[in-house]
Amino acid sequence: MTQRERPMSPHLQIYKPQLTAVLSIIHRGTGVGLAVGTVFITWWLVAAALGPVPYEQTRELYGTWFGQLVLLGFAGCLFYHLCNGVRHLLWDMGYLFDIEDVYRSGWVMLCASAVMTFAAWFIGTGL
Amino acid sequence: MSFESPLGRVRGLGSAKEGTGHFWHQRLTAIALVPLTFLFVILMFVFIGADHARAVALMGNPLVATVMLLFLLTGFYHMKLGMQVIIEDYISHEGAKIVLLLCVSFGAIALATASIFALFKLAFGG
Prior knowledge:
The complex is a heterodimer. Chain A is mainly alpha-helical. Chain A has a single domain, classed as 3 helical TM bundles of succinate and fumarate reductases. Helices cover 77% and strands 0% of the residues of chain A. Chain A has helices at residues 19-50, 52-63, 65-92, 99-124. In chain A, α1 (19-50) packs across α3 (65-92). The longest helix of chain A is centred in the N-terminal third of the chain and has 32 residues, at 19-50. The mean pLDDT of chain A is 93. By secondary structure, chain B is an all-alpha fold. Chain B has a single domain, classed as 3 helical TM bundles of succinate and fumarate reductases (Up-down Bundle), CATH 1.20.1300. In chain B, 79% of the residues lie in helices and 0% in strands. In chain B, α2 crosses α4 (62-90) and α4 (62-90) runs antiparallel to α5 (94-123). The chains are: A mainly alpha, B mainly alpha.
């Protein structure tokens, strides 16, 4: 018996992105970003343990515009994953399951992580 | 010879043979990382602009070293658990999956060991 080619569900090309799904995949994305970021934390610690010269070289590298961009990205991942992680823990405890609460907490979490990221950035750069 | 019934042996284990251990450890480390992340960020503010001598002196503070150690241990374990789930979810090829899972395990342990050894060296005087 021949099988007709049928569209798969959910049909991603016409599927409107929803906040719930988008925030969920960003949570994973930021998790991967943080995993990459652990290399830079380890790098910094090992450089410091190696001595003053490697430490200063690392500081210089992290101080370049590209280094700062990576650190800003790391901070963004960190605060997003932190805030959304708290949302996940609240779900685990049985809260925020009504669809309104899911959306509201999603927007609150997004704002909170953005505010934290920029606050950390301004404190860090001494502005 | 086991006197356990076949059902008794598998009950609660699920397909991954570990029961809810993975899920539970992910949550435990997540809860611990909420305060630890804030403490880590605050510590990083203190380290900004520090030269090597000051960085060594700061790490020599037992409170700083303890927070760093807890953050690293918990963070690397949480990372390993999370990356494992992502690979298990998206990589369907069995061989590639096993290789990637090994990379994640070895990578996490290597990074954790390197960073913690460096931390101890700094904490005990550089």
